[in-house]
Design a protein that fits this description.
With 720 residues, this protein is of the alpha/beta class. It has four domains: 14-254, Type I PLP-dependent aspartate aminotransferase-like (Major domain) (Aspartate Aminotransferase, domain 2, 3-Layer(aba) Sandwich); 257-354, Protein-Tyrosine Phosphatase, Chain A (Alpha-Beta Complex); 363-578, TIM Barrel, CATH 3.20.20.10; 592-718, Lyase, Ornithine Decarboxylase, Chain A, domain 1, CATH 2.40.37.10. The chain is 33% helix and 20% strand. The chain contains 22 helices and 30 strands. The strands form six sheets. An eight-stranded parallel β-barrel has the order 13-14-15-16-17-18-19-20, surrounded by five helices. Helix 2 runs parallel beside helix 7, helix 3 runs parallel beside helix 4 (99-110) and helix 10 (316-322) packs parallel to helix 11. The longest helix is centred in the N-terminal third of the chain and has 21 residues, at 36-56. The protein is globular, with a radius of gyration of 30 Å.
Length: 720
């Protein structure tokens, strides 16, 4: 997977994480305490505060630690409203604000405050003329985000601050959450400003409200002083220190990182080309763009307006063929293009230039497989799509999003944290957790995840978790054991189960299901048919005893193809979705291709050996190529010493010697014209190079091959 949603959450920087752990271990004291441990903690958080203040160019006394930007926004807006309520109750904001801002304004509106939203221009910026018109003597607050999280628009904060100088009782709050780390941020002319660490490689759980000195806000949390009188509680020393390091990194390193904007011609703006591209050039300059890559004839015509480095291409295809790694590697890259320019194709190509080893996932092939299995089902039969284990290695959110769009009825994951991740990324359809454990039940309820219930203990614990939040009829999924003997209620316990469910109004059975453990094995067909009959009997008995309708399902991918009598109300599609049937099926399309590149060529003489233990002894003069793909990336060690061949220029290149942790060596002696940087295909849809072929070499199943691809391998998704 290639994770690109950095506007929502960034991965924590390793040095930041180390700093957190170091401080957490070495500073166990409460910074408010006067003993030696408390004094050490106070010194650590004071040093962090000074560092943060330097990075933001503010005073240490202006720093208030919060749990994040949402708390900071709530604190600033509500406190300013209370502070100035005797001067007025009029507040101005924009329709582009984060929900922590808009939600605070809604709460204030219910208390009698008047909220006006300023108009937004076609370029996404605040209409300053309209803002000036909205300002009144009783306006007490203007709240504007510095950078919009959805559109990436940079708002004219300095111009607004200048305008508000004429309004003595009007304060200015800026949500700088999306700006810090991307753009230089100034606190000049601002009363309060929010930010949070997890937007710039810091940890979740720590944010800052910068408050102008002399502004006396009423705290949201009462009960005593912490690092400041404005927020009570034990200071989060380690988090504050990690935040300081993340900001210091941004200040000294990241903000100096070069930025590339890839932009297409803009259609239907409602402006003349002169006005439009004049504005675009101004926005590019204000954003600190180092290199502009323009695609289309109009941008090239206005090249002189752009003061940064620039290069232009007539089409997306030309850009893909000509743009070099220099333009993207080690840079922050923003792509903004009209639909006709197919920038999803460009993103795919740029990702390949930026990363050495990638797993390419063809979402169109996945949709084809989905529709193939749908064609085998009665039109009334519903479908559960299995996305556990990162969608069998293909990636979680991207696959789930596609399946949600394709209208499957349920998603299924193995563990609660997989479901939580999907919820946090915006997946709203029903999600079943198949290996639900009692330690995760509260988390599941909080995120509307539906558990597999397989014994009376899990039923009792989950019902209590539901009762704690005061809910009723929470959907659950009853697992029956029809022969696999892994999890599930046995037939002898059905009467007791029916009675218990009747006494537990907090839950409601959504589905009853079981697992066919031999549906892909023709030699076990008699057993499978007995299992289907057993499920029909057990599930029918339980369903009949419930006072509401339930869905029944037991068929997996192989059963969809081989046992139509097992369809019942719903089927579960797993491996088939990813291109594999119970036997090789040309109608299914493998969705994943694992690729890397040659990083070094070596010309070696006969008699030399390659790799650990000198296992790769050469019997002839050879050319070997080093590929950055090892067993830590999911390349099984048992594939070494010639047991697996990768494809270079469409020809097989066997692995020489043992597979290393982070790399392996292949023999390219018989492949002419090979150069460093050339593409290497580890597995693909090509016969002889498929995950099925690799599974046969390893005496395993394609599941293991696919799910073994490490998370550190970048995922690239393609869809026409």
């Amino acid at each position: 997977m290639i994770y690109l949603d950095y506007s929502a959450n960034t991965p924590v920087d390793e040095a930041v994480l180390q700093r957190f752990c170091e401080v957490e271990r070495n500073c166990p004291g409460n910074a408010n305490s006067r003993h030696a441990a408390g004094t050490a903690a106070k010194a650590a958080i004071d040093a962090a505060t000074q560092s943060i203040a330097r990075s933001l160019n503010v005073q240490p006394a202006e720093i208030i630690y919060t749990s994040g930007a949402s708390e900071a926004n709530n604190f600033a807006i509500k406190s300013i409203a209370r502070l100035e309520r005797h001067h007025g109750r009029h507040i101005i904001s924009t329709p582009l604000e984060h929900s922590s801002v808009s939600g605070s304004l809604t709460a204030l509106q219910e208390q009698g405050y008047e909220i006006d939203l300023v108009d937004i221009r076609q370029d996404g910026t605040v209409d300053l003329a309209h803002l000036k018109k909205l300002l009144r003597p009783d306006t007490i607050l203007v709240a504007v985000t510095a950078v919009d999280s959805e559109l990436g628009v940079v708002q004219p904060v300095a111009e607004i601050a200048e305008m508000l100088k004429a309004c003595p009782h009007c304060h200015f709050h800026v949500d700088a959450t999306q700006a810090v780390g991307k753009l230089p941020v100034s606190f000049a002319g601002i009363d309060t400003m929010s930010l949070t660490a997890h937007k710039f490689y810091g940890l979740n759980g720590i944010g800052v409200l910068v408050k102008r000195r002399g502004l006396a806000l009423e705290p949201l949390i009462h009960g005593g002083e912490s690092t400041t009188i404005y927020r009570s509680g034990t200071p989060t020393v380690a988090l504050a220190c990690s935040l300081a390091l993340a900001l210091d990194y941004l200040h000294n390193v990241a903000l100096s990182r070069r930025r590339t904007l890839v932009l297409s011609d803009i259609a239907q703006s409602g402006l003349t080309d002169d006005e439009l591209y004049g504005r675009v050039a101004g926005m590019v300059a204000r954003a600190g763009i180092d290199t502009l890559v323009g695609i289309g004839p109009k941008l090239k015509r206005y090249a002189a307006l752009f003061g940064c480095d620039r290069e232009f291409y007539a089409s997306t295809d030309e850009c893909i063929s000509r743009i070099g790694r220099r333009a993207v590697a080690g840079r922050a890259v923003l792509l903004k293009g009209a639909r006709e320019y197919r920038f999803e194709k460009l993103a795919h190509a740029l990702a390949r230039k930026s990363h050495t080893t990638v797993l390419e996932v063809d979402l169109d092939a996945m949709i084809h497989n989905l529709n193939y299995f749908r064609s085998k089902l009665d039109f009334r039969t519903r479908l559960v799509a299995m996305v556990k284990a990162g969608s069998y290695g293909a990636g979680d959110f991207e696959v789930a999003q596609m399946l949600q769009h394709q209208g499957v009825n349920y998603l299924a994951v193995a563990f609660a944290d997989e479901g939580v991740l999907l919820r946090e990324r915006g997946i709203r359809m029903p999600i079943v957790v198949l290996n639900a454990d009692e330690g995760s039940f509260d988390l599941m309820v909080a995120h509307r995840l539906e558990p597999e219930i397989y014994n009376f203990r899990s039923l009792a614990f989950f019902s209590k978790a539901v009762e704690r939040v005061g809910e009723e009829s929470y959907p659950i999924h009853i697992k029956l054991d029809t022969g696999m003997h892994r999890l599930g209620f046995m037939e002898g316990g059905l009467d007791m189960l029916t009675e218990t469910l009747g006494e537990t109004p907090s839950v409601k059975v959504a589905t009853i299901f079981s697992h066919l453990n031999c549906s892909d094995m023709p030699q076990e067909d008699r057993y499978t048919r007995e299992q289907i009959a057993r499920f029909d009997r057990m599930s029918g008995r339980l369903a009949a005893a419930l006072p509401y309708p339930v869905l029944r399902h037991t068929a997996n991918s192989a059963a969809i193809e081989r046992f139509p009598e097992a369809q019942f109300d719903m089927c579960r599609l797993g491996l088939g979705l990813y291109g594999f049937g119970f036997e090789h099926n040309d109608e299914l399309k493998p969705v994943s291709t694992l690729k890397s590149r040659i990083v070094q060529l070596k010309h070696l003489s006969a008699g030399e050996a390659v790799g650990y233990g000198r296992a790769g002894k050469l019997t002839r003069d050879s050319v070997t190529a080093t590929v950055p793909m090892g067993y830590a990336d999911g390349l099984d060690r048992h594939l070494g010493c010639g047991r697996w061949s990768m494809l270079v220029a469409g020809r097989p290149a066997p692995i020489v010697g043992r597979v290393c942790m982070d790399s392996c060596m292949i023999d390219v002696t018989d492949i002419p014209g090979v150069e460093e940087g050339d593409e290497v295909v580890i597995f693909s849809a090509v016969p002889g190079n498929t995950p099925e072929d690799m599974a046969r070499v390893l005496d395993t199943i394609p599941y293991e091959v696919m799910t073994s691809v490490s998370g550190r391998v970048k995922r690239i998704y393609s869809k026409e």
